[in-house]
Each structure stands twice: as C-alpha cells, then as structure tokens.
Amino acid sequence: MDDLKGKTVRGGLIRVFGQLAGLVIRLASLVVLARLLEPGDFGLMTMIVIVTTFFGLFATAGLTAATVQKEQLSNEQISTLFWINIVIGSAPTLLCLTAAPHLAAFYNDHRVKWIAIAVAPIFLITAMGAQHSALLQRQLRYFALTVVDIGAQLGGFVLAIALALGGAGYWALVVAAIATPTITTIGVWLATRWVPSPPQRGAEIASLVRFGGVMTLNWVVIYIAYNFEKVLLGRFWGADALGIYGRAYQLINLPSESLNAAVSGVAFSALSRLQSDPARFKRYFLGGYSLIQAVTIPITLLCVLLADEIIFVALGRKWADAAIVFRLLAPTILVFGVINPTAPLLQSAGLQVRSLKIALVIAPLVIGAYVVGLPFGPSGVALAYSAVMILWVVPHVIWCLKGTVVTPMELVRAAARPFVASALSAGVTVVVLLCCDPFGTAIARLALGTSVMLTSYVIILLFVMKQRDFYMNLLAGLMPSSAVSTETQAVGISQVMAPQPPASGSQIGAS
Question: Model-level pTM?
C-alpha cells in the first residue's frame, strides 16, 4: 500500500474526531438520562449487560481480527468466515434466552429475565455485520466506519431519550442497546456493498479460525477480569450500589475508551500491513504511542483534580456518592493508556498467544483485588482495582515487549514529554483553582480548571517540550501523497484481497 503513512494518519485522525463526536453523544446521553432515570434503572441494566456482553464475545469468534490481520485473503475465505460468524452468533442468542430465568434468580430480580429475552437477538445481529466491519477496517475506510458508528450511537441516544421522557424507565436503556448494533450492521452492509458468496470447503480458513479462537479466548479472560466486580457488587450490594459504581466507571472510562477505539483499530490494521518491515513497524508504533500518552495523561490528572465537579455537572446532585468512586478509578485511565497500545503491537505481530498468557495473569490479580475491596462497597472495590493495576504496569510492559522490535526504554521516552507537560500544567491548574475557589460554582470551577489545564498543557508540550514538529509531521500526513494513483486510492474488494507491500522510508514521526 503506497500511501500507508498518509492513510494511517488520516484514518487515525478521522477515528479520533469520530470518537470525539461519539464521546459528545455518549456524554449527552449520560447527562440527560442520569436526570430522567434512577440509579436503580442503570444498575438493573448493568446486571444484564455484564452477562450479555460476555456472551457477545463469542458472536464474532475473533474472526474479524483474523480478517484484518491476514496479509493475503480471498473472497471465498471472507465469505466462509461470514457464514461461520452467523452460525456462531446464533449460539449466544439461544444461550441468552435459556439463561434468562437463571439470571433473574441469581440477582433476585424478575425484571432481569425480560431484559435478557429482549436483548437476545443482538448477538446474531452483530454477527451479521462482523465481516463487513472487518473489510472496512482492512481497507482503512475509517470515514465510512465513523459515519456508521456515529449514526448508530445517535439513533440509540434519540430512542433512549424519547422513551425515558415517556416514562419507560429502564426499558429506554434496553431499546437503545438493541437499536445501536442493528443500525451498525445495516450501515456496514450499505458501506461495503459486499454480498457474501456461499461457503467453500476448500477456502483454507483453518489458520484464520485458530487466530480468531485465541483472540476470543483472550477477550473472554480480559472481559471477566475487568467486569467481575460489577457482578459482585450487583449480587451483594444491589442495583443502587451497582448503579453508582457503574455510572462512575462509565464516565471515567469514556475518554480513554473513545481514544482506544479510535487508535487501536487503525494501529492494528496499519501494523498488520508492516509485519515484514520492522523499522517502519517500530516507527509507526512509537509515534502512535506518544500521541496516545499526550491525550491520556492530562485527562487522568484532570479527572483527579475535578472529580466532584465532573460528577455534579455530568450526573447531578443525586449522584454525589459517585464522586469518590470516580476519583479512585481515575488512575486506571493512565494505566490503560500505558498498556492498551501493546495489544495491537502483539496481535499484529502474530503474538496473540503471549497476549492470552498475559490476560491469564491479569485476571486473578484484579479479581483478587475485587474480593478484598468488596466488603467496603463500591469505593473499596474501586481503590483495590486501581491499586493492583498500578502495580501491574511495569511487569506488563516488560513482558509485552520482550523479543519485539520495541524496548521498554523507548516507551518511556515516548511518554516522558507528555508526562512532564501534564504534571506542570496540573500544578498551574491547582494554583489557579486555589486562588479562584471562593468565587465559582461547580460548573464555573470545572470550566476554569479545564480551560487552564488544556491551555497550559498545549503551550508546555508544544513549545517548552519542543513537540511542535512532531505534531506538524502528523498534520502533514493528512495530505495525500502525490505518488498515489487514482487506482491505488480507490478502495474495493480487490485491494482487500492482495494488499501491496509497504514502501520503505515512510514514518509517522517520533518524539
């Protein structure tokens, strides 16, 4: 692919802006619905979402990642994977229907049964669009993906607000959960205009299925690790406590999840195309890693400084108990900012088995932390969770990078300038807030703190830390290469089937 740098940077920025738009939609939904619904409504929905999302991990069987990662892929292979997805996606739908009464018994709440029955078709709907979404990723068609994502989120948001205003209660959340994947599947079908052919026995998909199987197992282990505390809180503390924890958890993770969703898919697609070019592989990864840290670190410090104001403005007075949980969870933004980018590094390099082994170590560590913190309620769980994740950062990075083209010290250097700039800007923000504290309301304090933090951070990072050239290089990547022909820029199934080897010498940039 001749203009891989340009397509990667443009795709990454499109996804970032798309995720920012999605972030606005999700924040608006959170702010409005938090005032229209009760904590128990959110807690009730979280009870079922935790379980159904686990079922949903099997709906695609990791075959979308296999489609993106494979260097050479035929139409017959993709079509066969599509039909495998349909078969596999039917299983969690049936499982959800079967498990509905048992989930109600586990949570001691009969309403869970009807929610589980209502959301059961989601898995089959998601499976129907899995390969179409993978094709868009493989082609780096991130504008189309972004339009679909935003449309789906907006559709779900509008339906939820309308139903909540009509007094539907938690059913507003249920309908939104069904509508969003349905709109997404319809959107990716329309965007690709690809119609699968009948499955072929000789399509040589064994390696793809094995790759997908390892990826799925990895996702399952990680999902259990990072969501088991919600099951425990729902079971032992009830819907209200889970609602408080769940909203704080969702709010604290919105920025990092949006950034990870924007960057990881682009990184995985681009790095997968560079498997045979270690030098460019390394430059692309480190450039993207530095960019992620430049966003993640200041967000973490801002959430710690302004937790009370963020909760008050975003959720309202009745959610005051969520502020302490929000602040205690804030360090996890930084932790995930450090460790999440290593996932596409390993997976694109074909080291998904190592990724699985790491997941198998993380899971018992965090689950043990949940158990320790559970007697102290949501705050105890949040504190224990953050503490164990902080302790895990260094071993995680060393293990991930062992034997790869990237070293731990290179990661440290990539994050050093954003870290220093964030720390200095946080100090400036604290001084300003202390001086202005007696004169501001919560919303004024939040606006002041955010503006001071952002302005001082940008100035320090670009000019004091001398990162202006790095970001100018990223912006330069927005311009298409003059060497790219119309034929190369055209996106179609033919490009997906036989991607061109990357040209040498191109880079995103390094700090």
Answer: 0.65
